[in-house]
Amino acid sequence: MQELEQSLRAAPDSALLADILRETILHPLCVKYPPSAKYRRCFLTELIKKLESTAAEPLDELYQALADVLKEEEESTHCYKNYLLVLLLIVNSKSMACADASLPSRVLQPSGDCVSLCESTALISGGTTGLLTWEAALHLAQWALQNPGLFRDRTILELGSGIGFTGIAICKTCQPRTFIFSDCHPRVLRQLGENIQLNGFTPEPDVTWSIQTESQGQEVEGQNCQNPKVVVAELDWGSATEKQLLGLRADVVIAADVVYDPEIILALIGMLQKLSTSRADRKAPEVFIASTIRNPDTHQLFQAELDKAGIRWQVIPTHSSCNFLYDVQPDVTILQLFI
């Protein structure tokens, strides 16, 4: 906003604000899946303040957009959020200004796709925190988009999927063969299923995740990974059996923001131990857990319990900033576990 104000002061022109308005509040994606009325109201109010602080001509579109938001009904308990996906491209440095032209350059480029989600406007809703997207899910998705080869043509199991951001982003960009979303809260599972369909995927009809057979797994080997098989599983870490998990045939297991309460750490580790023998070939899946370090003691307890259970771990180097976050950059760590 500060840069915008400086631009307007240097060259007062309401056309710049008109362009911003069309690319944000009036963008077709935003019109179809609108953010919360409170957010749109604050955003438009700030734009108007910037406009009125300069000598630029008044912009009727801007005032009309704010009037339309103010006329909306009372604030809903849910809103939409749209996340633009950014891919990491490796390009030849010879075509760029680079100190060493022999080295490839890593370039971030919009994929042209996005993830649209219906989320709760409250941190806790219906007795769960799983109805909105948390920071570690954003960081894990960015890391996945920068490492698509880890997921391509493989079966991915996500623990504690919440409303689905990380998994949907991976399905749209990393070409997995099968992606299994899982959670245990009924309201979360319902919203998760709706968000998956909102983004153009259809969960497998009439397929019970816990009784998938090896032959079913083989049927999708040649499946077009541009359109992965998607499954939504009700998965309780405490009650899931090794026999049930065997049907999942997971090559990679991921989770984000599941290490936030000391009381669930042992259940999570127990689940990981079951997963270590859940493949018919007895090859343990690769595991990656992303955590926002809100309480260092809780994260240290998780690491200590992993050590007790004989599960080796290492920190995965990642970028300190996340493209999906523009305000505060939280402390997020991704651990690779060797189960």
UniProtKB/TrEMBL annotation:
Keywords: Methyltransferase, S-adenosyl-L-methionine, Transferase. InterPro entries: FAM86_N, Methyltransf_16, SAM-dependent_MTases_sf. GO terms for cellular component: protein-containing complex. Residues 2-69 form the FAM86 N-terminal domain. GO terms for biological process: methylation. GO terms for molecular function: methyltransferase activity. Belongs to the class I-like SAM-binding methyltransferase superfamily. EEF2KMT family. This is Eukaryotic elongation factor 2 lysine methyltransferase. The gene is EEF2KMT.
